[in-house]
Write a structure and sequence with these properties.
It is built from one helix and 28 strands. It is mainly beta and 375 residues long. The longest helix has 7 residues, at 364-370. The two termini are 34 Å apart.
Length: 375
């Protein structure tokens, strides 16, 4: 396997979150990093968030009067191509969890294409190029608080069968106290699932047997309640939101070398720190983080040596779509995504004008313009 970073089997660490090598011990245990997040004596004034409009929304999840919708994941067909899903020809889809019921699959227009009644799913993520029967599939994973582990699903993007759909593939049992946050990454031909327990304990699994299950390859502790995470294979980092403390950047291959990107209370993040995602915009890459406490989103550029602050935005009401409040999870995808030629951002909305919760869509170009980000 070709790893995204150089390593030796005798020095396996949390970097196994994105790598594993033949002959290594099956599990690497890493003690909590010694670096502690300081607490500001006095909270700094919160930097104002610039309003951007939504360009669409999904239908609401069916669970009423409850904290239900939680986290989305976006898939897009290659430019100029489409895929079949549940009898529809699609340019892409949005997977979104209802943590009281299961997994919704939406079209990019926000319509419901499929629902998988799979219980208490919390966070969801996906990666392409997972080989099944010699063909590349989309691997989807979700933290599962009912069965206590990771639920795995597959989608065949090349199938022309009108009945083609996302299907349950397998399950990875875990010993975390409560499966909570979840993200995925790739290392060469291997796909890894990163599961974060509500108490900040984390496990990393290599997905095996064509999605039927997986093996644990690493475990580590963040420090306190944590959820949002994203793997940056290109940069060699792994970002985690520790809800009441701040945003951490871990070095893949040396988790003891973690740095605090931002501390809650310094004006950029208001607890809780929730969803964490990234978007590629040409050669540039940006990190987007949900500042749930004030219904805003913080943005850093991360393709340089250190993260560079770019600003904060919020999602206002526009075009008959209500404003976004109290976001849990979010996802972003750069490049062409359906009707959005340069990227799409999808965020959970806690209060959906008296209806049950749903997900809102934002054109990346609107965020870029609001924050005066030049290409």
């Amino acid at each position: 396997m070709t790893s995204i970073l150089r390593h030796h089997c005798r020095s396996v660490t949390v970097a196994t979150a994105l790598l594993a090598c033949a002959g290594c011990a099956p599990t690497a245990t890493v003690a909590p990093p010694s670096a502690a997040a300081p607490v500001p004596a006095v909270a700094a004034p919160v930097i104002p968030a610039i309003a951007v409009p939504p360009v669409g929304e999904t239908v609401a999840v069916a669970t009423l009067n409850a904290d239900a919708a939680d986290d989305p994941a976006i898939w897009a067909a290659p430019p100029g191509r489409r895929a079949m899903l549940a009898g529809a020809s699609i340019a892409g889809f949005i997977a979104g969890t209802d943590k009281q019921a299961g997994l919704y699959i939406y079209g990019l227009e926000g319509n419901q294409l499929q629902f998988i009644a799979d219980g208490l799913l919390n966070n969801v993520d996906l990666r392409e190029g997972f080989m099944v029967g010699g063909r590349p599939h989309v691997l989807i994973g979700a933290s599962d608080r009912g069965r206590m582990g990771v639920a795995l699903y597959l989608f065949d993007p090349a199938s022309t069968d009108p009945a083609n759909a996302i299907r349950a593939a397998g399950f990875i049992a875990s010993d975390v106290a409560e499966p909570y946050g979840f993200c995925m990454g790739r290392a060469g031909n291997e796909h890894h699932a990163v599961l974060i327990g509500k108490d900040g304990e984390a496990r990393v699994y290599a997905v095996e047997n064509e999605g039927a299950g997986g093996r644990e390859i690493a475990r580590f502790a963040i420090g306190s309640q944590s959820e949002g995470c994203v793997v940056d294979e290109t940069g060699g980092y792994f970002y985690v939101g520790e809800e009441a403390r701040g945003l951490w950047r871990y070095e893949l291959g040396a988790p003891q070398n973690r740095v605090l990107v931002e501390l809650v209370g310094n004006g950029r993040l208001v607890a809780d720190v929730e969803g964490v995602t990234l978007i590629a915009d040409g050669a540039a890459r940006y990190l987007l983080v949900s500042s749930q406490g004030d219904s805003a989103f913080a943005v850093w550029r991360i393709d340089g040596a250190e993260p560079v602050w770019r600003g904060r935005f919020s999602v206002t009401a526009a075009g008959g779509i209500d404003a976004v409040t109290g976001t849990d999870g979010l996802d972003a995808r750069g490049g062409p995504v359906g009707d959005w030629p340069e990227g799409l951002v999808v965020v959970q909305d806690d209060e959906n004008e008296g209806m049950s919760q749903n997900f809102k869509l934002i054109d990346w170009r609107d965020i870029r313009a609001a924050l005066r980000i030049e290409r």
